[in-house]
# Entry
Amino acid sequence: MKLAARVLLGINLFVIIFHFAALSGVVPREYVWGGRLQTQEELYVFELISLSVNLVFGVLILWRAGMVQSFVPLGVVRFLLWVFVAVFLLTTVGNLFSQSLVEMIFGSIGTATLAVLTTYVNRGSSN
# Structure
């Protein structure tokens, strides 16, 4: 479980860096959010929400894997991680309908991988 958690944390760090790159304009708006964002303001809102959610996800993985002491009950952490699994699966479906071929391919593979790894970590032995 610890290896899967480390892989998830690595992917999460990459995603956070990617979202910062989108915020800074290094990654064009057309390559994120299915190419559907019309304005820079929309990009800022969506990216800031995404960054917040990714930070929460990273903390949950750290807690579930026992890498950091949690002040939240394990049952709550596990429930929230199942919510993330569902979101990753729905996002995978959404990515398959992206207007951006890059997001369609890499986004779908990425979110499906996140769903599988999160399931593995969440089903691991309790800490």
